[in-house]
Amino acid sequence: MKFEAIAVENIPLIHTGDNLPSIICKNLELQDRDIVIVASTVVAKAEGEIFRLEDITPGKIALEMASRNGKDARFIQAVLSRSREVLVEKPFMLVTTLAGHTCVNAGVDESNIEDGFLLYPPVNPDASASRLGQELEKLSGKKLSVIVTDTNGRAFKIGQTGAAIGIYKIKPVKHWIGEKDLFGKVLEVTEEAVADELAGAANLLMGEGAGGTPVVVIRGFDYYCGEKTFIKEMYRPEEMDVIKKGLRCLQKKLNKKLN
Amino acid sequence: MKFEAIAVENIPLIHTGDNLPSIICKNLELQDRDIVIVASTVVAKAEGEIFRLEDITPGKIALEMASRNGKDARFIQAVLSRSREVLVEKPFMLVTTLAGHTCVNAGVDESNIEDGFLLYPPVNPDASASRLGQELEKLSGKKLSVIVTDTNGRAFKIGQTGAAIGIYKIKPVKHWIGEKDLFGKVLEVTEEAVADELAGAANLLMGEGAGGTPVVVIRGFDYYCGEKTFIKEMYRPEEMDVIKKGLRCLQKKLNKKLN
């Protein structure tokens, strides 16, 4: 049992309107059941999710936050416009995005983009993954899965890892429910975050810097799924999220001190 | 640029005193700069970290917690004996272990072990990784890295991923400090949790159930490091850990309600 992770070489700098699926297919011959993993930065660029910082007018909340945490109010406004809840304001903004993903700055990025511009993550990452997947399948004639990834920090630990934020024809979580362990007992550990493990494996080859390779193919790991799948299946329901409850508790305490 | 993840087949059920390095070398010919990734369960079994539930006498704190969360007080005692702090008591025990790793139940496991027994994680996972690595290097004559892994849940998301808990001759975090992005700006995102991404990649082939393959080799990803390395480098310093602060805030509030 083995699989390969293959960086797709020679991907040029991506601009609005570029045909990513065609660029990918030109640089690697895809095979049946390949998992094509694409960094959200190039997806966002191809989709034109680029905004000029000076075109953003910060609202009241953004201005208040900026006075507290010293960040550019326009950048804060960009983050807020993609967020449904701010869990941490300072020293970094940890938010839950409109799509339900909890991450720093809602994925809004000042790196790998011209000065004075911001790169927004795809509005609906599953839809982006589907468009890529359908086009890649058409061009290659193969059955494929797609994962759109970002890099995220983690609780308790230093360092970011690749994380799945949008998927096509792959289940985000593998359920072991009812399966038995080596001694015939029903397993307690029942869910494996396969899409995130794949995103992390791909990120090992992607890099963050100027030598970045934003597309990686995982070959030989058979996890193709014919049905429509949704990344939100991986997001913990609010009522079960003890860490969010903790962060709200802390935020409340800080707000009391401020008032 | 590519790498392979290869499951080492034919690893038998492991018992106390078994020579893991020799078993691994018999089943796969290792190559220079391979990264050998071993599930902590088999490391713990080989090291004899197996305890009988009925031999554990719960102390006062374990008995109090058991009355609150309905778990076996002996199991709680087992978790407490490996923990330096309990961050969440209920509905699951989230603790920071003596080694500094924050995880559920301190990694104490009732799965994949005979009924009535508990499997403790290795006391010093870096030392376990070093012993494995040195012996593997001696047997194979190759330069190798080793990662001992567990599977852990994550904040905000459903599903577990493989995580590094002990390392040998591999850096846990890659620092991009000072490196430039595609547009020549110094990168803001500066740390990649390489050891955890590798552990996750390996976990894709390990499985949790009866068909488990506890050893996976990553080949072709050149990240060998000649120096001594420590997993604690990846643990976020207490004063910077906003999520721990949040969980303590919540715990305090719950304690107030109880009193």
UniProtKB/TrEMBL annotation, chains A, B:
Required cofactor(s): K(+); Mg(2+); Mn(2+)
Residues the entry annotates as binding GTP: 11-14, 40-41, 45, 112, 206-213
Residues annotated as binding a divalent metal cation 1: D109, D150
Positions with a binding annotation for a divalent metal cation 2: T151, E208
GO aspect biological process, one term: F420-0 metabolic process
Species of provenance: Methanosarcina barkeri MS
Keyword Ligase assigned: yes
Protein name as annotated: Coenzyme F420:L-glutamate ligase
One family name in Pfam for this protein: F420_ligase
Gene: cofE
InterPro entries to which the protein is assigned, alphabetical: F420-0_g-glutamyl_ligase, F420-0_gamma-glut_ligase-dom, F420_ligase_CofE_arc
Single GO molecular function: metal ion binding
All copies of domain Coenzyme F420:L-glutamate ligase-like, residue ranges: 11-220
Pathway stated in the Swiss-Prot or TrEMBL entry: Cofactor biosynthesis; coenzyme F420 biosynthesis
CC cofactor note: Monovalent cation. The ion could be potassium.
Catalytic activity, as annotated: oxidized coenzyme F420-0 + GTP + L-glutamate = oxidized coenzyme F420-1 + GDP + phosphate + H(+); oxidized coenzyme F420-1 + GTP + L-glutamate = oxidized coenzyme F420-2 + GDP + phosphate + H(+)
SUPFAM superfamilies to which the protein is assigned, alphabetical: CofE-like (SSF144010)
